[in-house]
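#struct-pred
JK: can someone run the complex with AHM? inputs below
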Amino acid sequence: MATLTSTAGIGSAQPQTKEGFHRGTKLVCASTSAFVAVAVRSQRSKVRKFAAARRAKTFNIDDVKDVCSQSGITLARYMIEMQKQGIVDSELSLIMNSIREATKTIACLIRRAPLQQTDLLGLQGEVNVQGEDQKKLDVITNNVLKNALRYTGKLVTMASEEEDIPVSGGDLDDEFNTKVVGESGSYVCVFDPLDGSSNVDAGVPVGTIFGIFKEDPGAECIITWETEGLNESELSCLAQTLQPGKNLVAAGYCFYAASTELVVTFGHGVAGFTLDTDVGDFKLTRPNIEIPKRGKIYSVNQAKMSEWDEPMQHYISDMQEGKGQTGTAYALRYIGSMVGDVHRTLLYGGVFAYPADKKNKDGKLRLLYEGAPMSFLVEQAGGKSITGHSRVMDIPPVGVHQRVPVILGSAEDVDECYGYFDRSKDPALQARCENRLAGIVS
Ligand code: AHM
Ligand code: MG
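RT: done, structure tokens with the ligand placed:
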């Protein structure tokens, strides 16, 4: 059986560079075919070696002394304990506080939306940079999160699904014209404020996804688009933002469903919190989420099956018919909100996928603020996340809104799926995976 193995750990990014390229803004823009060839060769040996990052010591609930039987462990208390254990610093704690408050506001807005339809439901009338119609709630929730984060003063930049380019200091002056981003910050936050928003008017669960990187002053990255018309400071923000998933120091999502669930990792396992609406605080309800090694569910938009790459078609059809390694026919569950589908996959096991198809060679999901943070969570819970041939966390983004195929879930299920790609000798498919790893987007 083909399995995925990796020596790559968190913070071990090796950005691609080329001598002689413009470094004034810490950027390495564009690429020549010679460079591409070298980059592809140097990545070739790594392509087959990927998988769950080593999991560091998990947060131990027994280390938390003096738990109040009435209040339990709130997210704020959890962050204090994480700080005491040296897992996070005070800046990251502050950023998490802001995310916590923003998600509580977003949960409230979503609950109220059917009662305030004119203000909160329907289209905003704008199209975002990816050509998608923005919902009113896309815009509102983006502002909620952006404003919550800006006043931490701990971010150098942030990037959102709803912003064309990373938000730089100039955009984030407060009412006294003080720059609130870029002054003393050393973190970078990427987020999708309302993932699955096409579902929101019908009351179908949606979510917020976020990832946090540490600023890398020596950051160099390949940028193949989005540079036109950007000034020096914006280019610098872009360079900071384009870090591979394996550089993430924290990631999480908030799932707005029957209950509001905040699931987070700081690279030491995965913890789940539930919003206690009576007191308005998140309480630790799942101290150490571990994804089952195997599941019995596949979660994918099967309507697109005839458009997928052949290995994916064969894999899903075998799962459906019980012709896979377990001999069991899997059930299909698909909400169409990634946060919900990944949340269920984390708890029940199985596989969630948004694969490439004939029209969309990189699938639909965005690498930076959807694919990478979710992959970090899944790997930290003991699962795996691949594009087909390669590990999602290894891909160096070349654009903020770059898309990536994602197949994630239980380790043995993802290994099994990887086997189909591994046995496929389709050179075009393999080249696509290798190009992504080398920072070349088709
Ligand atoms: P969005 O970020 O524009 O909301 O799109 C992402 C969502 C994911 O939550 C979900 O997995 C996917 O789109 C569903 O797409 P489809 O309707 O093509 O199945
Ligand atoms: Mg989204």
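RT: quick notes.
The first helix runs from residue 33 to 47.
The radius of gyration is 21 Å.
JK: thanks, will look after standup
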